[in-house]
Write a structure and sequence with these properties.
Helix content is 32%, strand content 22%. The radius of gyration is 15 Å and the shape is globular. The protein has one domain: Gcn5-related N-acetyltransferase (GNAT) (Aminopeptidase), CATH 3.40.630. By secondary structure, the protein is an alpha+beta fold. The chain contains four helices and five strands, in the order βααβββαβα.
Length: 140
């Protein structure tokens, strides 16, 4: 079956929401589709990509470019469609779009315990960098 990677559109919300619920069941509310997608659509909506197979959303990736570096987020593929190259397709299309914007460096974070995903990214040429990852939630 042919998988098409394309820019997200609102008619695909339910499919992405279901995908993220399967892929990220313990994510906090601010990372769920209902909160994250509207925010992303306000900034670089062309960097929210989905993979569609026979009309069904089977994968997603989100990217954000600040003019200096990029971050990849929310790479997910439905379990039933994994190991078909869909995740790689999504990453490559995100990288292609980022390169077209002038991006020269891509960053991402993976939970240290998620060895399978670390190996997935290694196979795509990513490497673990010596960094301390820090974060802070701010509210308005």
């Amino acid at each position: 079956m042919r998988t098409v990677v394309t820019t997200y559109t609102n008619d695909r919300f339910d499919g992405v929401s279901a995908l993220w619920q399967e892929a990220f069941p313990t994510d906090p509310p601010w990372n769920r589709a209902a909160a994250a997608i509207p925010e992303k659509l306000n900034v670089q909506p062309e960097l929210l990509l989905i993979a569609v197979q026979d009309g069904q959303v089977v994968g997603s990736i989100m990217a954000g470019y600040d003019g200096h570096r990029d971050w990849l987020y929310a790479l997910a593929v439905l379990r039933a469609f994994q190991r078909q190259g869909i995740g790689s397709q999504l990453v490559h299309e995100a990288e292609r779009r980022l390169a077209a914007l002038g991006c020269g460096k891509v960053n991402l974070q993976v939970r240290a315990s998620n060895e399978a995903v670390v190996e997935f990214y290694r196979a795509l040429g990513y490497a673990v960098e010596e960094r301390v990852s820090m974060g802070k939630r701010i509210t308005s």
